[in-house]
Specification:
Elements lengths: L1 H13 L5 E5 L5 H9 L4 E4 L2 H10 L5 E4 L8 H4 L5 E5 L2 H13 L4 E7 L12 H8 L2 H4 L4 E8 L7 H21 L5 E7 L6 H6 L4 E4 L1 H4 L4
Parallel strand pairs: 1-2, 1-8, 2-3, 3-4, 4-5, 5-6, 6-7
Bound molecules: pyridoxal-5'-phosphate (PLP).
Amino acid sequence: MNSIKDHLTSLLQELPKGCALVAVSKTKPASDIQVAYDSGHRDFGENKVQELVSKEEELPKDIKWHMIGHLQRNKVKYIAPFVHLIHGVDTVKLLKEIDKQGRKNERVIDCLLQVHIAKEETKFGFSESEIETFLGSEEAAELTHVRVVGLMGMATNTDNEEMVAAEFRELKTLFNKIKNDMHAANLQLEVLSMGMSGDYKIAIAEGSNMVRIGSSIFGSRH
Ligand SMILES: *Cc1c(COP(=O)(O)O)cnc(C)c1O
């Protein structure tokens, strides 16, 4: 059990100042999260709504829960009351549903738009041009119960580090461009969520300020 704490501590020492760590606890028991919590960590990431909801009920209320997986519109309502940050917003329809649920719960829900940077077909996300078109639209400006606070991306799952670096670099460039050029009340770009256990060092070198790490903290998943 102590190895969770050790892994977390050494990882936190390794991360540069200003780079946040989301400890990805999906498939792991609440007791593992409690160990990390007891060593002072508060940000945890889950990718399934049902699992997120039941862990939220069971664990301390000051945990900041990150929804990192693909989110279906009909499930937004279950996490809207408490979720800290939704990383994988990949359609306009989903963002609108989050806005609707934010309104119902009388809160503004922070979101990251997921950008499709990998060369794989299977990854969700907006293309770069879709993001710019959408963020510049009336439709986006009208949403008052969501705040787009950043971008999220996943690189291709490959040993080719140059390719991974190039994909992260592309996302960082888009992030800077939107941050500098686009302005709206509900657009406050601060978070660039990129990097997992296998590629976080590359992601950080390319400008990530939030990494999502699971297996390097909690061990491999079965
Ligand atoms: C599972 C997952 C992670 C963490 O993966 P590890 O390889 O265990 O670090 C990060 N991001 C997303 C979106 C995930 O689904």
